[in-house]
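ok trying this again, last paste got cut off
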Amino acid sequence: MNKGVVQIYFGEGRGKSNAAVGSALFAAGHGRKVIVIEFLKGKSDAGTAFIDRLEPEIRFFRFAKSDASFAELSDAARQEEIMNLRNGFHYGRKVASTGGCDLLILDEILGAVDENVISVDEMRDLFENRSEDVTIICTGRVLHDGLRQYADEIYNIAPEK
């Protein structure tokens, strides 16, 4: 088995999640087990029906319970959703530490860090305690400076035109 890496796709441009899903398809095509956990996007099925058909090679999880995105929630609903999103993070941490997959994609996890749902220290713990053969891809608009040192590869996705 290959040694895993930590990749981060961030920036204001579109395509971060698409790039991560492309990596998932590539990995699954090579017989690797993939888990995708989506954060902050609500529980909408938009665009995920195809990926759901790719099980068991690619397993897709949304721990969000609200139909609305995190930014659209009231304060009370936001507090409840924080607990749901943290459950998703804990599941991802368990999968990464036990080697439960070859590729773990944490889609929009950087947004959860930016929203203070997940701390930089918790992310550091996730990276440091992952099984060495697990690759982790994190996506989001903003990359906290405290996470840069834990990434093996960082891609800034920015619009040019």
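PB: full thing came through this time. Strands lie at 6-10, 34-38, 58-62, 103-107, 135-140, 153-156.
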